[in-house]
Amino acid sequence: MVQVSIESSNNNILRKTHSFCPVCMKQVDAFIVDRNNTVYLEKKCNQHGNFSILICEDAKEYSQLQDFYFNIVPQKLPQVEYYLHITNRCNISCPVCFLDFSENGRELSLDSVQKLVLGGGVKRVTFSHSEATTCENLPEMVKVLRRSGKIVNIHTNGIKLADSNYASSLKSAGIHHISLQFDGFDDKTYIKLRGGEFLNTKLKALNNLRRLSIPVTLNVTIARGVNEDQVGAIFDFALKEKFIKDISYITYSNYGRDSVNMDKYIMPSQLLKNIEEHSQGKISRKAIYLFQKVFFAYCSAFKKRKCFYYYHYLVIRGVNGYTGVDEILDLERLCRALDHLKEDGLRINRARFLAILIGSLRVKSLLLFPSSFAMLFRGGFPGKPGRLLALTFATICDPYKYDAQIAVNCGQGILGLDTSCESYGEFLMEDIIKRNRRSKI
Where among 359, 379, 394 does a domain terminate? Predict the structure, then answer.
């Protein structure tokens, strides 16, 4: 971790926020600064010194996106999407995991799950923050939540999904889609990140999900020096598999277990170079930057919480490859119109957003009909993937990169074992603080 002086004359403070000292977990002031046209989060603990982490290599890009985000995305929107933490069990032990798992942990009952989720404003639940497939009654939980009209997803390492009968039980229960932990096509990667050789098991799980036509998200943890080279390979694979609806590239996070692991740090904006080079410029950083503004406007119009540090892009599958969303939408024209709304102080509601969107369609937009526009009106919730493949480059809060002003609008809350919080990022920090306190007793 680079130690710097926050008071350096070369620093231009873009925003003040608060964070935590990654050593003692005390709340400290933090600054988003432009240092030599590169953006860092910098903070100082009186006891443990200064800390700095690279956020974005392009200060102009970051500054403009930040200005747009904080001006058009309402803060503290009602939370409608939650992680559902039903157990503290797991069937593998990932070296990068920050959770305290055991083979014989607790499990929520079906009645408890119903009380947590049914009613209120919860629209979408994702069984996560644990390995939910270790719970025998998971299929029944999925079935009950589906009957109540909830959109249901499972984050899983995929070990049990390699069993075709188990995968079929989730299909019969009505699961909407599966988020599968998938870090690449080299077992050396899985040994480093997951503690074992799991590639064949995950490929078996994918074969079962393909056969059952269950939409899939590939959740990819990217660590510097471990598997950056897999960004393009995973993209090429997903492009050919129409049951895969999106890829979420999630950058490595550090929770204070081993300071040596800081050399694996990488932020989402740094991954954009990987996909740009792999696509030979067909997916450009500029297009992703412009689409971010469109996505933030969409979140504002549809009242969806979303983290600022989630970069998004869309491609449309074709017979001979793919078409980027910038070939479907005139992104520059669309962003100019959105900037005018922001400058005029006009609220971006659904009618205004859709009018601007339709006015920016290119001829190739016919490729999007009908399924992609149906997804838009559903508020982005998953449907059948079809020709559309979404890309996300994201990160998760940890004590080094936690930014309170961003975490307040986290796209996920969490419910479950002794847990209830509207911001998953805030929950993670509170959980680490509690664990630190217990370790000192």
Answer: 394
Q: Kind of pairing, strands 216-222 and 177-181?
A: parallel
Range of the domain at 163: 81-394
Residues 258 and 193 in one domain: yes
Assess contact for 139 and 154: CB atoms under 8 A: no
pLDDT in tens, the chain (441 residues): 333 444 444 579 999 999 999 989 999 999 999 999 999 999 999 999 999 999 999 999 999 999 999 998 887 788 999 999 999 899 998 888 877 666 667 899 999 999 889 877 899 999 998 899 999 999 999 999 999 999 999 999 999 999 999 999 999 999 999 999 999 999 999 999 999 999 999 999 999 999 999 999 999 999 999 999 999 999 999 999 999 999 999 999 877 554 546 788 899 999 999 999 999 999 999 999 999 999 999 999 988 899 999 999 999 998 888 999 999 999 999 999 999 988 887 788 899 999 999 899 988 777 665 555 555 555 554 456 678 899 999 999 999 999 999 998 999 999 998 888 999 999 999 988 887 777 665
Question: 29: how many CB neighbours lie within 10 A of its CB?
Answer: 12
Kindly state whether residue 2 falls inside one of the protein's structural domains: no
Q: How far is 173 from 248, CA to CA, in rounded Å?
A: 25
Same domain membership, residue 191 and residue 61: no
Q: In total, how many domains does the chain have?
A: 2
Count Cβ atoms below 10 Å from residue 102 Cβ, excluding itself: 11
C-alpha distances in angstroms, 193 versus 51, 125, 149, 304? 25, 26, 36, 32
Cα gap 126→218, rounded to integer Å: 14
Residue 307's alpha-carbon distances to 62, 287, 311, 373, 380, in angstroms, are 14, 19, 9, 23, 15
The edge-to-edge listing of strands for the beta sheet with 27-35 is 11-20, 27-35, 38-45, 49-56
User: Residue 216's closest CA among 185, 261, 258, 171?
Assistant: 171
Question: Contact at 8 Å (CB) between 281 and 425?
Answer: no
Query: What does pTM read for this prediction?
Result: 0.93
